[in-house]
Amino acid sequence: MTLLGERPRTDRLPVGRSTAEPAALVAISHGTNSVDGQAAIKALVDGVALARRDLRVTGGFVDVQQPDVAASLGAVSPDSAAVVVPLLLSAGYHVHVDLQRETSAHDRDIALSRALGPDGRLIDVLEHRLRAAGLDTLAQGQEIVLAAAGSSDVRAVDDCLRVGAMLQQRLGVRVTVGFLSAASPRLACAVTAARLRGGSVTVSTYLMAPGFFFDLTRAQGAGADRVTAPLLLPGETAPAALVDLVIDRYLEAKEHAQLF
Q: Cross-referenced PANTHER family, in alphabetical order (predicted)?
């Protein structure tokens, strides 16, 4: 297994194994018990498969749902390498520990891509959700609180703070970040602080899809004037920006690992 940024391994394919089939794209999301969340994530994986009909595209989960990572990789042809693309917004424990461990356990060439964020295309979708919710960036006193899941991994927290800074630069509106778990400030506190500064407060939901954390977002963001939808919604075609982002993460990791 090769993680982007590490030296690629070149000794995994036995002599005689065919490399004619391009590396499979294995999209691994967190997993959720929410039917809406499941449908929203499936729409993204389907969108990637539609955009790249030349690739074997399959989905799996690092937690909660099945198939898990091992089963998802096991379903890929043994003659094919694989690139695992985490459908995760920041690189915390699941990327640095769980996915590295799971992908290293397979006897095939596997590359693990970066998480999806930070990236300007995520800002595109966040902006779209904000404007759909009625945000007027020309109005005085606007405050945005970016609602992120949170992590005990400081690298993931830093990723979220960077996205908040990118969104502020894009919109010209003050953006602070509030976390739903594991990190501070918590979303409810961030919303209260924004409210005390006056004006209108909008919670920008920095989550992939509906589920447990989106329910928390609506509960902890109750003091805001509005709460936007997650990046993906059931019944909607996945945003082209997210489809492109997943494909680019695949291509980047595949090139780095020197996979066909």
A: FERROCHELATASE CHE1, SIROHYDROCHLORIN FERROCHELATASE, CHLOROPLASTIC
Reported pTM: 0.90
pLDDT in tens, 70-126: 999 999 988 899 999 999 999 876 676 678 777 776 677 999 999 999 999 999 999
* Distance separating alpha carbons of residues 66 and 63, to the nearest angstrom: 8
Give how far the C-alpha of residue 116 lies from the chain's centroid of Cα atoms, to the nearest Å: 5
Percent of the chain with pLDDT over 70: 90
Q: b/e string for 119-137 if b means 16 or more Cβ within 10 A?
A: bebbbbbbbebbeebebee
Where are the CATH 3.40.50.1400 domain residues in the chain? 2-117+236-257, 120-227
What is the 8-class DSSP label of residue 118? S
Closest CA to 141 of 201, 193, 192, 191: 201
Instruction: Quote the CA–CA distance of 28 and 84 in Å, as a whole number.
Output: 7
- Could you write out the three-class secondary structure of 36-52? HHHHHHHHHHHHHHHHC
CATH code of 120-227, in short, is: 3.40.50.1400
Overall size of the chain counted in residues: 260
- Looking at domain 2-117+236-257, its CATH architecture is 3-Layer(aba) Sandwich (3.40)
